[in-house]
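Entry for the shared binder. Reason: the reviewer on the internal report wants the predicted structure included alongside the sequence.
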Amino acid sequence: MPADRSAQKLRRWIDLIVALLRRSGPASFNDFKGDVPAYATSEAAPESVLRTFERDKDELIRFGIPIEVSNDLKGVGLYRIKPGNFYLPMLQLGEALGFDTPPRQRARGDRAISTLAFTPDELTLVVRAGRRVQQLGDPYLAAEAAGALRKLAFELALPDDDGTERVRVEPQNDDPAVLDLLDQALRARKFVRFDYHSMLRDAHGRREVEPWGLVFLARHWYLLGKDHGAGELRRFRVRRITNLEIERARPHTPDFTVPDSFDITAYAKWQEAWRIGDGDAMQVIVHFTGSTGIAEESARLGTPVDGEPDQRRFEVRRAQTFARWLLRLAGDARPVAPPEFVATWRELVKATADIYGASR
């Protein structure tokens, strides 16, 4: 791109960001078009100007500018940037924590920005954590960590990297192109279609999914979304997604709305090993007979079964792992359904008893 065109685009981006920051709530394109000279004075057709804005908006979002997109009751697009999501706190280095003193406020434009203070030890820990994340082998996490460290270095002198605490994690070879397409679909709320290999059923199939979120869990990227075929929320390991396509009809109109009840943080937290896996989950019913503390605590990991106070339902993606976990409860819990899992559990009980010569 010629230098003058690059400068023009940068000017448009800056004017657009300023126009959105000036507003206290969501605004339509026509509401703020006059505040962006490149849009207001353009001699191009209105449809062409709108397309230019859509490209600018999408590129800024990909660069990390937190532009929120919604629609009014008539389906007109609304856009906003919340100042609290855009401005960074001022940083300072201090010798004491000073928690008894409220954060200082410093003016940045017409906004009051809190000051975030680090002690030297805290800053060292934050920087070491960021550098460890960069070593994990995931390009997206590494990029985010590098960006965070650059922001810190803008106002603070960061400690040198002493080369200690190197982390080695086996790379999972997720295709960056697939992750990038999923990211685009998530931001635009567009349907995706892909071929998927379910390890649980050892089956291949074409899926149509509403992408609701991406999580990095147990060294793997997972797509969370509503599977139209199953009619419910499912989790897909990104590594097993192939031939990915994004719905191209109405590119600037969302295809779906993510339910308010969906909480991605709940899926990003640590989960029991038997829950983590590919494809469909098996619903296992377990009957608890023991009253020991460990039995009661284990029962709480499941959900109640209607009409059966001593039974709990578990979502299982790794049958062998869950069977071994039940075996540790020493007879205080026995699976009762489905039959295929009960058979797996009994085989494990028999094999274990044969090893130790125990009676069954």
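Summary line for the report: Residues 3-21 form the longest helix (19 residues).
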